[in-house]
Amino acid sequence: MTVVLMLLGMVSATAATAQAAPQRTAASIVCSNSPIPPGWVITSSYSSSGCPGTGVAYTIADVSGLNGATVCSMSPIPTGWVITSSYSSAGCAGTGVAYSIANTATLNGATVCSMSPIPTGWVITSSYSSAGCAGTGVAYSISNTAGRAGATVCSMSPIPTGWVVTSSYSSAGCAGTGVAYSISNTAGRTGATVCSMSPIPAGWVVTTSYSSAGCAGTGVAYTIADTAGRTGATVCSFSPIPSGWVVSGSYSTSSCYGSGWAYNIRKA
User: I need a surface site. Which of 53, 195, 248, 263 has the fewest CB within 10 A?
Assistant: First the structure.
């Protein structure tokens, strides 16, 4: 009998725990000082006497499995989603602005407003004035670089990890900066020629630098190399030094435009 009662107690406790666990629902109403669960968005906001301290309530919704949604401008934007338009909305008390947002999971390209987050691995290929982006008045064309070796982007674009800027030039298609970059993926390569404003991939070094008309904005280009599999290298003094490497010597050189100094480096 004792064993039976213990088993019944365990079953009851398990059932009670299951009932107490928060359930993920399609929509809910919370006060404006409430945290918003990951993957949820704010679809409307309004005055509410039930929310002392802020006096504002939010309607929130789970966007899992959706391709698009309409949200208020104070809403978090889920990872991989973008803002495709913004406009005035009486349903968003506090800002008065709503966004149309879209999931990029199945897309290779999109048109977004300039305040939109840019998904990891995506780049801005053009920018222009747009009445459909209230607040900034500027829209971007963006593109996914997955599986690509190169791209042309505007200078305000994020540069994907492992990619470099190989040239820069004036472009009427990049409103806001007026400058475009040619960028390239260094995957599978051991060396490259880049503009001096380019990110340098982890483990790569600057081996020479020189004047270049192909790098508008700085007028300087770098020759860079991957140190993977190497135990020593000669680099310009402004080069990043890979983790675990040390400077073993330095000397003056005309091959490092801008500093005139080079380092001998080696693995520690």
Answer: 53
For 58-110, how does the pLDDT look when each residue is reduced to its tens digit (9 = 90+)?
999 999 999 999 999 999 999 999 999 999 999 999 999 999 999 999 999 99
**φ, ψ (nearest 5 deg) of residue 6:** -65, -40
Closest CA to 208 of 247, 163, 238: 238
Place of tokens 């006096």: 55
Give, for 251, the enclosing helix (H) or strand (E).
Answer: strand 245-252
pLDDT tens digits, 203-240: 999 999 999 999 999 999 999 999 999 999 999 999 99
Query: Would you say 131 and 138 are in contact if contact means Cβ atoms under 8 Å apart?
Result: no
**pLDDT value at position 27?**
75
Residue identified by tokens 């380019």 is 198
Q: Which residues pair with 247 in a beta bridge?
A: 265
Instruction: Give the separation between CA 33 and CA 42, rounded to whole angstroms.
Output: 12
Phi-psi label, residue 206: left if phi above 0, alpha if psi -120 to 50, beta otherwise? beta
With a threshold of 0.90, does the pTM exceed it? Answer: no
**DSSP 3-state assignment of 76?**
coil
Q: Taking a C-beta distance cutoff of 8 angstroms, is the pair 31, 93 a contact?
A: no
Give the Cα separation of 122 and 72 in Å (integer): 24
pLDDT score of 19 more than 70:
no
Cα separation of the two ends of the chain:
71
